Amino acid sequence: MAGKLSKLSIILFFLSACLYLVLLPFIHYPLNTIIKPIPIILLIIIAWQTTADQTTKTFLIIALILSLLGDIVLTLPGELAFKLGILSFLLAHSAYISLFLKDAQFRLNRTLYFLPILLFILGSYWFMSPHLEQMLIPVTIYLCFLAIMVFTAFQVQQHPVLIIGGACSFLFSDFIFALTQFVLGESHYTNILIMFSYYLAQLLLVLGLIQRQTGLKPA
């Protein structure tokens, strides 16, 4: 259904995301490796069906595929899998940055709005850095790309609300994820919060980028 947002795909996205969130406390590898990526696969289908601009379509699908790989890798055991997951999402952020820069108009007021977010990022890094140990450099590099992604989201000229919301939700998801990995330890509640905000982030980014390029909204 090219040129229109597929209502069926969006419904399936919500159903699959809710299913994973409900099952999350009860499933482990390898079942979570199968179920976790399904909502992102559906977003890839939505992006493929609806995005008119070829460059936006290409980079958006690349960002989602890299996120999909990151989702899968992070379900695997081992430190190498964790590092590869970080790399996958770093590259996904790079694709989103490229998309945002296509329609960026740097304004002072947008930059001022971003400053509290920047202070939050710096404060979080200062708080968590003593706990990062051998992951200090990879996490620092990743955080720089994440901060740039959020900053460029604030500079998007057309239909910025969904995109800014998606970028901030991504930041929140990563913040809680880092807390559980390096400071607090995992729990069912934090894992659900991480995945809820992550799925929300990807949905808002996809809908925001599609709306920016085509003006389409869900039917």
UniProtKB/TrEMBL annotation:
A Pfam family hit: YhhN
Molecular function GO labels: hydrolase activity
UniProt keyword terms in alphabetical order: Membrane, Transmembrane, Transmembrane helix
Subcellular compartments: Membrane
Residue intervals passing through the bilayer: 7-28, 34-51, 58-76, 82-100, 112-129, 135-154, 161-183, 189-210
GO CC terms of this entry: membrane
Signal peptide span: none
Protein's UniProt keywords contain Electron transport: no
Bilayer topology: Multi-pass membrane protein
Keyword Coiled coil: no
Cited PANTHER family: GH04784P
Family: Belongs to the TMEM86 family.
UniProt protein name: Putative membrane protein
Lineage: Bacteria, Pseudomonadati, Pseudomonadota, Gammaproteobacteria, Legionellales
